[in-house]
Write a structure and sequence with these properties.
two-stranded antiparallel ribbon, 4% strand, elongated, mainly alpha, single chain, 42% helix, 101 residues
């Protein structure tokens, strides 16, 4: 089997090639255009996904003194996941910092 040596792997680009600069500018403009199109597509996708999520969201408001059972899906290391309790509590709300917290 004939293997290439390091001389065969070097790029063979001549310095006299003036078309190189125009090709590089063309590639840069194509890359900029691709990034702009990708931003537009991601923004549309994000808005669509947000709309799908917002359809199922229920607004809940809690007051100080309410009894709650927080949902904790995180599994503790070393514990059997099959017998894991997802809802912990009951806990009493002691302070309301904002509508979200």
């Amino acid at each position: 089997m004939v293997l290439p040596n390091s001389n065969d792997l070097k790029a063979k680009v001549t310095k006299e090639n003036s078309d190189h600069d125009s090709r590089l500018e063309n590639l840069k403009s194509s890359l900029r255009l691709a990034y702009e199109l990708l931003k537009k597509v991601n923004k549309k996708s994000h808005l669509k996904n947000k709309g799908l999520y917002d359809r199922k969201v229920k607004l809940r408001s809690f007051q100080t003194g309410n009894i709650v059972y927080p949902y904790t899906p995180a599994k503790k290391h070393g514990k059997c996941f099959k017998l894991h309790k997802y809802w912990t509590g009951p806990f009493q709300i002691t302070a309301k910092l904002s509508d979200l917290n």
